[in-house]
Amino acid sequence: NPIPGMGNVTFTDCNGNGVADVGETLTLSVPLTNPLTETLTGVSAQVVGGDSANFGTINPGQTVTKDISYQVPADADCGSKLTISIIVNSNLGQETKTFTIQLGKPVLTNFQNFDGVTAPALPAGWATTRSGAGTLWTTSTASADTLPNAASTVFAATTGRADLLSAVIAVPATGSNQLTFRHSYNSEFEWDGGGLFINIEGVQAAGSYFDILDAGGSFETGGYPFVLVSSANGNTNILQNRPAWTGNSGGFITTTVNLPAVAAGKNVTLLFIAGSDSAATVANSHWRIDSISLINSYECAKVATTTSVAASAGQYSDQTTLSATIGADCPDPVGSLEFKVNGVSVGTVAVNGTGIYSTPYTITNAPGNHTISANFVSSNHYYQNSSGSNTLTVSKEDASVAFPNSNPFSVKVSTAGGTAGPITICADITEVADGSAGNISNATASFSFSPVSGGSSPTPSATTYSGGGVGGTLRACTMVSNVRVDVYDVTVTVNGYYTGTGSTVLAVFDPSLGFVTGGGTVLNNGNVATFGINIKYLKNGKPQGSLLYIERRPGGEIKIKSNALDSLSIVNNMAIILTKATLNGIGNHNIRMTVVDNGEPGSSDQLGLQTTSPSNAPIADLTFGLTTLKGGNIQVPQNGK
User: Comparing C-alpha atoms, which of 125, 178, 110, 120 is closest to residue 151?
Assistant: First the structure.
């Protein structure tokens, strides 16, 4: 005996069809037995081309079984018989053992399962004869491989013979040309038994039959287990001294026969002989045959794979991650996974097993929804290809807006009592830095001019652009004409691939409209504030004067004091003053004060304030809309002199 001995190796396959397919991962169940009276130690087994297992110590007479993973080579031939070697080591040395696995599932033809007739009739073309005490073959519902019928006879208690003769079977000229059938038998061991015989048209004389082995065939599985007792020892069975199916099969088993090579392309007839001797029989004596087929070829299944693409999102020009999950019943798909956005390839990654695979992607697509697709191409033909898709949602990139120093801040009307213009306003648009710059030329801009007095707005011309590029600055410009006296909030809204806003101020003034003066008190957030203004135009058209705002708070005073008047715009009874100012001594704050003269004695006059920091950030607690004075008077003359 080999030390240790290896029993019948079985396997389970990952796709569960019970067949070893090309490229498939199998779990081999390897039994090792100690046939000796001494203990074996350090026992291990290495499957050549696969994994290994440690069996440890095997006591005398003990069998230890371990599972070992093995992948059928992807370049193996479907339908071939694969010989697998296992190197077994123990304290008694090393030995290489082998076993064979059939690759693929048989493709069956000329199938006969005896189910198309009503028992006890035989199918058309099939016949039965007997001699001696033999019992004719019939179809029976007592037990079958496929319900309801199987061909059946019994082994007689005295000498006899029962023959089952098949219909003519045409054997293909090419292919594996194997015969397979399922059968169950129970006979007096080594005295009664059955055999398979064949007649090959054009090779053997009509009516002459040879045992399948004598005719040149061989058993792949389920062959004759024993030789019957000879006539010299008293056996009167016609099959005496021949190999045969004898004893108890324990139920239906599979027998696969390699037909003689000369049978290729010929018509053959099969003969099943059940022979019994003169001595006795066993309880439940029988031979049942079912599911007879020719195997002309083998087919290997392919494992279905799935490619599930994850949705992704990001801003234009930023980097995002595209990912997909490869799934399969078997764990080891290999190949490549290509990602595409809107059908354009953006990256390919290697696949080695199930799981999540990803690739970085810098978004160059316009804001909106786009299609991500991923296509898995298997390099192992045992696995099927697959693909999937999902959505890439692109949002606009953030942009910042700045205004060049060349922009006019205040513009004098062309003639007294008239309007100003044409006036050109520009904005410089840049991407907010985030480490991944896009092409700012994909931005667009729109301008709006909102008058503080609430009158009509001038209509800007079409926006023109210059500059731009990746990481650059896009200058957007517009022009307005016939602009009446007022202070305008100029807002730039960025669109296209980008989003952002920016604001500036444009003051249009008319020196002929005179001056503004006044003072009083007003409430802001419950705090009393005192203000005073006295501003007029000089002959050269520039404003001159002062503005003072003092708010008393529990924590102390807040004082705003002008130090550089920018403009004074008078619209009817409203005046808008733009000035630079100090806030509690800190300079470079921007002030816009709006006052309304609602007539004498001034009790219904109004004041509004807007304050921004040197960095142009709004100061909320020093910003409020038009508020009626608590006391005081404001003078906005309707004509100047």
Answer: 120
